[in-house]
Amino acid sequence: xxxxxxxxxxxxxxxxxxxxxxxxxxxxxxxxxxxxxxxxxxxxxxxxxxxxxxxxxxxxxxxxxxxxxxxxxxxxxxxxxxxxxxxxxxxxxxxxxxxxxxxxxxxxxxxxxxxxxxxxxxxxxxxxxxxxxxxxxxxxxxxxxxxxxxxxxxxxxxxxxxxxxxxxxxxxxxxxxxxxxxxxxxxxxxxxxxx
Length: 195
Known about the structure:
The protein is an alpha/beta fold.
């Protein structure tokens, strides 16, 4: 969990530290079009989601990319990871679906270089819930399913907290979030942490 933890942030689970080979793989996949990396990254995401939900059926809700990012990258990296992760979970006998229930309400500035407070302000009311192909999220799930937010990396938690707020406003609870990696805060590192 990030520290300080933004209000409304779901319990977060990450597969790895955002450092070294993991960091290079995420950047190569997301920013340089190395889409072959989607499968191993989604495998790590699926394993993390499976551990986090503890055997319950799951609905994965990816944090959406902005339109400019989609145009620049030529793909939606987080949505693709969610789709592949759900497929891995289903192959392991786990009831798993994906709902692209979130969209951008307004354009937010690039988060790089912003403090945790600036990130929270930048993302305030940035997302809204939309009706997907299967209708509204709240109509497509039951109490046995766990709604899990999905993102590639968690830094301050502002994005996931805002996504959870949008889901709550639409009547859906997302008690968990899973990411491929988490940025380790330098002020919390200890000797021997390796990061």
